Amino acid sequence: MIKYIAGLVFVVGAFFGSHALADEAPTANTGLSGKLLAEMPLAPEFAETGNRHFRMRMLTLEKGGVVALHSHEKRPSVEYILSGHCTEFRDGMEKVYNAGDVVAADHTVNHWWRNDGDEPVVILAVDIYQPNE
Predict the structure, then answer these.
(1) How much is the pLDDT for 36?
(2) Longest dimension (CA), the chain
(3) Best CA proximity match to 71, nearest among 106, 25, 113
C-alpha cells in the first residue's frame, strides 16, 4: 500500500513540478485550523522508517485564509478536498481545487494555498512526517 501511495505521490508531484510563486508567497498561515484525526509511529510497522509517523488530519482554511509557502521535502502528503474550493500556487502556476479533488505532494513540492471562496475549505490531509521537525 505504501509503495502504491508513494508511486502516486511521485507521479502527481512530477506532473506539477516543484516551485511555488515565491514572489507572492505568504510567509505565515492565516485562517487555518487543524484537527488531528489519527497518528501512528511507523518504526514499529517498518524498521526502515526511523522516527517517522503516519497521520491523518482534517484542516479548515477559512475564507481569505492562506497556508504559507512550505516544502514537502521530508513530508510527503495526499490531501482530499471535502468541501469548498481553494487555489494552490506551485511551480509558477495556479490551480483551483474543488470538493472531491485530490492533491499529492512528494519530496520535490514547494507550494502554498489561498482560499478565495465564500466558504471555508475543509481538507482531509494524510502525510508521513518526523515529529519535532
Answers:
(1) 83
(2) 45
(3) 106
Q: Is 55 helix (H, G, I), strand (E, B) or coil?
A: strand
Sign of dihedral through CA atoms 29, 34, 38, 39?
positive
Residue type, 126: V
Yes or no: say if 84 and 28 are a contact pair by the CB < 8 Å rule. Answer: no
Q: How far apart are CA 49 and CA 41, in angstroms?
A: 9
pLDDT tens, residue by residue, 11-66: 444 444 444 455 689 999 999 999 887 676 777 766 677 888 999 999 999 999 99
Mean per-residue pLDDT, 79-100: 96
CA geometry: angle 22, 8, 75, nearest 5 deg = 50
Residue 9: predicted pLDDT: 44
Domains of the chain: 2-129 (2.60.120.10)
Beta carbons within 8 Å of 3's beta carbon, 6+ residues apart: none
Q: Where are the alpha helices (DSSP H) in the chain?
A: 2-16
Residue 35 C-alpha cell reads as 484537527
Please state, in angstroms and rounded to a whole number, the distance separating the CA atoms of residues 51 and 16.
29
